[in-house]
Amino acid sequence: MFEIGGSLREARLKRNLTPADVQKAIRIRDRYLQALEEERWELLPGDAYVKGFLRTYADYLGLDGNLYVEEYNSRFARPDEFQLVPERFERRSTPLGVGFLRPLVVIGAIVAIVAAVAAWQLSSSSGGKQGAQPPPTTTPTTTAAHTPPKKKPPKHVAVALPTRAVVVASRGNSWLWVRSGSATGPTVYQGTLLQGKTLPVNLKNGPVWIRIGAPTVDIRLGGRLVHGLPTQVGNVLLTRRGIQPA
Question: Is residue 106 part of a domain?
Fold first, then answer.
């Protein structure tokens, strides 16, 4: 047996610590620390707090916290008392008073009523099925005219037009005069295209005007053969979409 509070105070003073220093270190309020050192257990929240504070405080001071808890248990701790029934019920003569049974009676009555209603509904539904069948229900027809869904117009997909054409002297020599834009535009080519030779034509800057001296040439636009060339000496306007008379 030893003095709990006095030994804690003595250990603290040997370390030159104030209650404020201990409070800052172990997070226990200084008034509780003072109550531990003075063994004023009634100032503490309860036995569980007393034991926890004792163990923490003693361990912090380098003492055996379990030893302090055991000493407190042997001398001061009170056995835990669990009050299962409030005092107003304990004073009654019977274990289960009328006030306690009243909620049970009400609950039983409600359960019985619900069960009776459910049984009545079940018997009514089964009797209806065994008896005459109810008349078939008719679905009213709607007179509103059916409006067909509107067809969405097809989306126009832009196709890239070719920017390059090729004049081919496929059937013989032909004299050519090529101008940029129109018949009055600057000359791009002027001369005789020999049979088997080709003349590339750039259409990026716009159409070109071509005078064909002999109907022995073909024009390919974007790899495709262009139709409608003159059958004799004539002029055409070559665009990215095809040829036009000029």
Answer: no
Q: Please state the φ and ψ torsions of residue 10, each to the nearest 5 degrees.
A: -65, -40
**Encoded tokens for 58:** 């003693």
SS3 97: coil
Integer Cα distance of 194 and 185 in angstroms: 24
Position 103 in a domain: no
* Distances, alpha carbon 82 to alpha carbons 79, 85, 86, 90, in Å: 10, 9, 11, 13
For 149, the 3-state DSSP assignment is coil
pLDDT in tens, 209-239: 889 988 899 989 888 898 988 898 989 998 9
How many domains does one find in the chain?
Answer: 2
Bridge partners of 219? Answer: 167
- CATH number reported for the structural domain that contains residue 202 in this entry: 2.60.40
Domain final position from 75, 102, 132: 75
Chain-centroid distance of CA 186 in Å reads: 64
- Global pTM reads 0.37
Q: Is the CB of residue 175 less than 8 Å from the CB of residue 192? A: yes
Instruction: Identify the domain boundary among 21, 50, 75.
Output: 75
Instruction: Identify whether the C-beta of residue 179 lies closer than 8 Å to the C-beta of residue 209.
Output: yes
Quote the tokens at residue 46.
């309860």
Q: Which domain holds residue 179?
A: 164-245
Rg of the chain over all Cα atoms, to the nearest angstrom = 56
